[in-house]
Amino acid sequence: LENRLADYIMPDVTWTGGITELKKISALCEAYYIPVSPHDAAGPINVVAGAQVMMTVPNFYKLETSEWNLGKYDHLIDRPLDVSNGSLKLTSRPGLGVEMN
Length: 101
Prior knowledge:
The chain has 101 residues and is mostly helical. It has one domain. It has helices at 19-31, 44-54, 67-73, and strands at residues 82-84, 87-89. It has a two-stranded antiparallel ribbon with strand order 1-2. A hairpin with a 2-residue loop joins strand 1 and strand 2. The longest helix has 13 residues, at 19-31. The model has no long low-confidence stretch (mean pLDDT 92).
C-alpha cells in the first residue's frame, strides 16, 4: 500500500477472517486512498456480508461477483438476492438480511 503497487484491493470476507477483518482492511486501504472491491466466490452469505460492510466504507469501488453464480444462490437462502441493473439491493432485515434454507 505504501508503495502504491495496487490500483484496488479485493479482499474476500471469508478468506480474510470475517466482517471485522474486512472492515479493518478497508480502513487501512482508505488511509492510502486505495479503493476496495470485495471478492466473492463462496456463496450468497459471502456476497451479502461483503455488501453490508461496503455500505460503511467510503473507499468502496464495486462488489465483485458473477451473474452466473447469483442465480444458483436462490435455493440456498430464504429469498432471492435483489439484483437489477448491476446493483444489489440490500434489505432492512436484521443481521445480514438473509437466512440459509
